[in-house]
Amino acid sequence: MRNNYGEEVNPVGFGDAIGICFKKYFVFEGRAKPSEYWYFILFCIILSLIGIYLSSIGSIPLSILGLVLSYGTVMPQISVSVRRMHDTNRSGWYLWIPIYNLIIIMFFDSSTEAKTSKSNINKSIASKVTIKNDLTDELEELQELYEDGTLSEEQFKKAKNKLLK
Questions:
Q1: Could you tell me the residue ranges of all domains in the chain?
Q2: 3-class DSSP state for residue 40?
Q3: pLDDT tens digits, 93-108
């Protein structure tokens, strides 16, 4: 699927996600799949826990190392978050709305289109876009109405042809 922010990317493993995120340290273009995003966030959480532990030991060099580990991943976290928003076909600027971006990142995948009030999609075109399961359900419902006698054969054929166009 191609959206406004680039070609679709493939899911990646834990090590690959970390490598990609550090290679794209300041890259805010393109897309990031959920696996890339969540593996990198898991890595950052682990690094932060290690940083907190090192800082709590009391040694100044270990405290500095702990801070570097914790804060050294802030920019890649932001960039992978922006790319994750792009994968859901949304602008990275949505990251400024904290609760909204958590919901989007957690519950929507790349096949979900953004629903905004500024949508320029023509309603007639959007109504023609149907998911295969919805079409199957509608055809089954028509069949039931025909079998119950609610629809005549002519009405059934007309409605069926309309759905299949």
A1: 14-107, 130-164
A2: helix
A3: 877 777 776 777 677 7
Give the residues of the chain that fall short of pLDDT 50: 112-131
Report which of 23, 13, 17, 10 is spatially closest to residue 87, judged by C-alpha positions.
Answer: 10
pTM of the model: 0.56
The answer to whether 37 and 9 are in contact (CB under 8 A) is no
The answer to whether residues 114 and 90 touch, using CB atoms and an 8 Å cutoff, is yes
In the 8-state DSSP scheme, what is residue 3? B
Closest by CA to 116, choosing from 142, 139, 97, is 97
Q: What is the residue-averaged pLDDT of the chain?
A: 77
> Do 26 and 78 form a contact (C-beta atoms < 8 A)?
no
d(CA 58, CA 36): 34
Q: What is the CA 158 to chain-centroid distance, rounded?
A: 39
Tokens of 51: 């940083």
**Residue position matching structure tokens 């309309």:** 162
Give residue for tokens 């949505």.
Answer: 94
List residues bridging with 6 in a β-sheet. Answer: 3
* Residue 151 C-alpha from the chain's centroid: 42
